[in-house]
Amino acid sequence: MYRCRQIVSQCSSTLKSNLGHGRQRYAGESTTKRFGSDHGYNPPAIKPATLSEMPTPKGSWATAHSRQQAKYNMHLAAGLGFTAFTFFVGYQSGCFYLNYGPDIMQTKVSVLTHEQVREQAAAAAAAAAQAVVAEEPVSEPEAAAPAVVEVIEEVVPVVVAEEAAVEEVAPAVVEEAVPVAVVEEVAPVAVVEEVAPVAIIEEVAPVAEAAPVVVEEVAPAAVPETVDAVPEPSGNESGPSDQSEAVVAAAAASVAVVGDFPEHVPYLLIGAGTSSFAAFRAIKSRDPKAKVLVIGEESHLPYMRPPLSKELWFSEDPEVPNKLRFKQWNGKERSLFFEQDEFYCNPVELSGKENGGVAVVRGHRVVKLDIVGRKAELDDGRTITYDKCLIATGGKPKSLPSLSSAPQDVQEHVTLFRNIDDFRRLESVSRQVKSITIIGGGFLGSELACALGRRAKSNGLEVLQVFPEDGNMGRVLPKYLSQWTTEKVKAEGVQVLPKTQVEGATLEDNKVVLTLNNGEKIKTDHVVVAVGLDANTDLAVASGLEIDSNFGGYRVNAELEARSNVWVAGDAACFYDIKLGRRRVEHHDHAVVSGRLAGENMTGAGKPYWHQSMFWSDLGPNVGYEAIGIVDSSLETMAVFAKSTAADTPKAVVEATGEGVRSETENAAPEQSSLKESSKLHAPIEGEDYGKGIVFYTRNDVVVGMVLWNVFNKIPVARRILKEGLTTDKLAEAAKLFDLHE
């Protein structure tokens, strides 16, 4: 213990001594002297370094720089080499894929006509017949095994042309005088092109596996003209069994088809309208190698419907119904069809397309969907399986009970206007008769009335329009604006009869006599019915799909999905709008928007319906409007109007923008405009000229819809107002965004 205390004492004294020396150093006393006198320690003298002592580089600075750059370049080369090696290994192992093929969206695919397909099939059959080696006929057919004749449908699925479907084929005739050729081995016969040679199986080995059929003489059934007849072999030609083997060999590498389309497709679109067109474009944009099959009831490729009641009527060319081309108000000509024949591929060749494609089967209807089995059944009994399916069947035109129950001779003078065939019929009738009556005052009825009224000014045609509302488009526009619109329709040469309904129809002297609810009778040569649409939900009951009880149509969610792997778009969809609630819309722009959304969701996008589609209507070239949201005359409305100019017409806007369809120009419109002169909201004034203006539709003091009356290319502004849920106390400021006083 004493030793430890002594050591601590010495350390303490040393520390105090050092601290004392430090204080004295700062006071100016020499540290060296103090350390030397007390402890006998003399620190070495420190000599500052000079440039002479620095290391001298070997060689010139240029040599040293080159040596350093060479080292860096070697590092760069090694890195690039390693990157290239990694890329090569990844490519060879299949980690990623480079598509060197052509862009399928820009590649035109040649489509064979039915005549060319038949010629190729006939040439293939002739070549197969020449390659057959004749077999020695059986000398004693009675000693051979009992002949078994199978129904042709079970051996060769005969391909039927679109114009006529052959459901059953009569069994072939076996004559006693003709030697029967023996077939030792029978392979399943695949179909080649559209028409395959009919093979008759005379004997099947083993016989126990074949279903016995009694052979007797049967009169041959008549074969439709669309199926080429199979010639019977002569005495020096090979038998049908040889032809069967040749057909099997020729079709061994062909794709399995059911009639005129493949038996399985990744994407099946039911309906060949605007929604299907928008859907398969969206599918191809996200899945360039997609194989899409479209099945439609009409005999036409997908086309746009709005010109059927607008631009097509403004041409004096008598060939318009055949050409189906029209001039837009900007002078440009375009086709009614979205794409021409070259864009689509042959349905039979769809499965074999390496880069995918789009095929359209026309003249057929899907009658049932097996949701669990992913199978669609057609009206002729054939089936096709799919991975994803879209229902875009559109709507069916409504009729009136008084016309539906009328005699057949009356209905022959009635047109339910909807498609190309209806347009062609009405266009032809309008050039032959003296009077036409249009029933309906909505969009379609008013557009047709104005179109026919303009023609009436040149050929003396009498055009009448009958509807129960107070004015044209009375279910959409406020009463004052609807009545003002009626005056504009009358100025186009139409005799308008509002607040009237048709209660009966008879035929007298080859003219239709319409009895109105006010007791009056109208004699007319032809009647056009345009009273709206019913959603085409024929698939619902057979397929187990839900129909909305309030709005009609297939009930779908916000992603437009009705069941697993089944989507619905267009007029037939009753969807949930995340902003405005459940709705069903029957307009062209909605068909485009919903079809595009459904196509994206079919490829896994999972997007909800939030984009507010718009619609437009033109009553001739001088009056038109665009609308968005819920527009219903039963809602409360607030409006602001201004005096129009010569530039505030549909024709002037199209000529100024250079676009033929206004829905295409909305994307180029500005998001907002500057705040200029204010437009005051006020009640309608008797006799006021509603040249151009904005109508706000409100529900619970919130804007839910808007009509832009002779105000064009401002839909993005209106869409933003709906998205923000603007209230009525801010409408005066919102009206400034539309620049009505420019």
UniProtKB/TrEMBL annotation:
InterPro entries: AIF_C (IPR029324), Deltameth_res_prag01 (IPR031973), FAD-oxidoreductase/Apoptosis (IPR050446), FAD/NAD-bd_sf (IPR036188), FAD/NAD-binding_dom (IPR023753), FAD/NAD-linked_Rdtase_dimer_sf (IPR016156)
Mitochondrial apoptosis-inducing factor C-terminal domain boundaries: 598-724
Gene Ontology MF: a single term: NAD(P)H oxidase H2O2-forming activity
Annotated FAD/NAD(P)-binding domain residues: 268-594
Transmembrane segments: 76-100
Major location category of this protein: mitochondrion
Protein name: Apoptosis-inducing factor 1, mitochondrial
